[in-house]
Amino acid sequence: MKSTRLIVCAAAVLLAAGGCASSSTPASPSSPTDSSSTTSSTSSSDSSSPSAGDSASAGSVADSGSAGSSSSIGSASTDSTSGGGSGATIAFLMPCSTCADRFENQDKPLFIQAVKDLDPSIKVIANNAQGDASKQVAQTESALTNGASVVVVSPLDESTGAAISDKAAASKVPVVSYDGLITGAATDFYVSFDNVKVGETQGEFLKDKLPKGASVVMINGDQTIAPGRDFKKGAHNVLDPLFKSGDLKLAYESDTPGFDPAKGQAEMEQALTKLGDKVDAVLVPNDGLAGAVINALTPRKLAGKVLVTGQDATDAGLQRILLGQQSMTVYKPLKAEAEAAAKVAVALAHGQADAAKQMSTSMVDNGNGQVPSILLKSDPVTAANMASTVFADKFTTRAKVCTGDAASKCPAS
Question: Is pLDDT above 80 for 51?
Fold first, then answer.
């Protein structure tokens, strides 16, 4: 079979962006802020895979075929993709940790395990750009040089995604956008959630909970990437008619570059100052920014009195929900997303482009053409349904969420 090389893109924003899971303290993300580079061999002789939260030190390559071993990035495997997938390499390129720590803590280990389950001979190189666009492009080049046959990348922003697409095209490597869509450039497949629907879910929550005339602040995510724009669009789809009718009031709105919690907290502080603390709800796209907003509300004794939305069902976000500080989050089953992306990537690594296309459930216009896509379902989570969603699905555990002051508020099975 003719050998194939491929890049799979894991979108930022995640961011989410999406989205996206983030640490609760804006200035101190739970994941390292330096670049993480990991090479995980999924050969049959190696039964280990990184656990959630594991990450290699900056500039190192950890080979799961030899636990604890490391070497420089330049000495990573350069095996090219061969027919049938034997000896193939998939690169999983993540955008950042401050925008969403889910990429290191959940997406990476889930994707590596899913690839291993499908084809133990395939190696996975995992890199995190840590918010540096030029670094993400350089990581793409390094992955291609080191024989990547699939690279899963979540582009940090629109221009970075286009640059990655161009690098891949020059090497005749297919691109799969993961979690956020590469726009205005070629991409072969897109795996994510319906991000407009995520924003609509957050908007519907406020619509159902707020009294007439309530003031809403919108602290949106990054608008240079598709997920950030989609979250904002979805929220406005629901809230704009209410703003227009006067049923709700849009008191303040800002966009947050890079979904950066520190910037989000500063924006919320400005909003509170401008509005004299007269705020009833804050539409926030993810849990990382929700934590930042709550940090701004707390010294003004408004935490728990103002509705705050979120996304990603992070442990910190879920704990804040139990404590009454955050009102809801949007749960996105990341295992299903990682497994879907792995199936597409492995099929492409095997030279089965038609089989990969047949996995699509919809087509999405990315400004460059119609992209075969898999868009998964997300669900709102509150204290009332936490047990039947994130705990029942084993997305996280009570041991991780129900700690400290939240222990006494943990929902029963």
Answer: no
